[in-house]
Amino acid sequence: MLHNRYNKRELKAKLRQDVTARITLSFYRYIRLDNPEAYRDQLYRELDAFGVMGRIYVAHEGINGQISVPQDQLESFRAYADASHELKGIRFNYAVEDDGKSFFKLTIKVREKIVADGLNDESFDVTDSGIHLDAEAFNRLTDRPDTLIVDMRNHYEFEVGHFQGAIHPDADTFREALAKTEELLGDHKNRPVVMYCTGGIRCEKASAWFKHLGFKEVYQLDGGIIQYAREVKNKGLSNKFRGKNFVFDERLGERVGEEIISRCHQCGKPCDVHVNCASEACHLLFIQCDDCKATYNGCCSHECKDFIALPDEERRIRRKGIKKKANFYRKGRTPLAYQGVPVEYEEVG
User: Residue 7's CB: how many other CB atoms inside 10 A?
Assistant: First the structure.
């Protein structure tokens, strides 16, 4: 059985009721896969046997996954990984804050790339990535006034949390971030450039690309924000990350820094809780405080609030002709309505 037999609502209800202790972790590896379709089927069968849930992408260039593993299966899963050619020796990044409810099913998809970057991999050495820094070395190098710190994530990730002094390309996608970062860095090819992202995968490709562009000193945070958070806690280091780390699962974030640096998109109160609009005809990702959640009934607007209050049949009639999940890839930008500026959202994908 290589597909789920339950719908999303049923799966989420089952997960809420499940008392199984689970561990959330992420991993990636650039490795040549000659037949990603066959590997996808093999991987699904093997991980499903462990009760793994999560989201995994496989491509000719490798594998990228975020999963949750039953705690009592963790050691067996690690032994399986060590015996696997594709996963042997891979580094797992364990979640900082974990309630065991990060995923409600297992999905493995074949993609052209494990991270969409828009680059021609034949034009540069993708294995010639930047120097990896642990948390201590990262702190030491970023203390230098000549160091440039670059956040390679999307705007909605940066909004709720980032490193002090980081340059951000204000991009909707990784592909766009690469181009905008090149513009931002300009002629600073002789200055140290330190890149970071959630778990490290985007920086593997980005650092290699910027070395190809002629930047002399390119570094990347090893294991990304997730590994950094664990290291500063375990080693008692100074934490230079402010706010929350956005994650791509049901949690939508984990606390790394104590500050709340973002605001509710509806009223402007300090808030860093991402939610999806309760209307399935919208599902916009945005930041919402508890007060606005009550006011708008979990929706992004009065229009969506009114829509979900309609009878089921009326909602079905109104949704006819509307492409399902049309707005799932829209991400709310920080509106300035509470400063007298009209609210605007941009379509991304």
Answer: 9
From the list 197, 203, 271, 292, the catalytic residue is: 197
Predicted TM-score (pTM) of the model is 0.85
Domains, the chain: 8-110 (3.30.70.100), 121-235 (3.40.250.10), 262-339 (no CATH)
What CA dihedral angle connects 181, 187, 189 and 193, to 10 degrees? -40
Q: Is the pLDDT of residue 329 over 50?
A: no
Residue 282 CB partners (closer than 8 Å, separation 6+): 299, 300, 304, 307, 327
Q: Catalytic residue at 197?
A: yes
Mode of pairing for the β-strands spanning 131-133 and 218-221: parallel
pLDDT digits (tens, 9 = 90+) for 59-102: 999 999 999 999 999 999 999 999 999 999 999 999 999 888 89
- Give residue for tokens 């294995």: 127
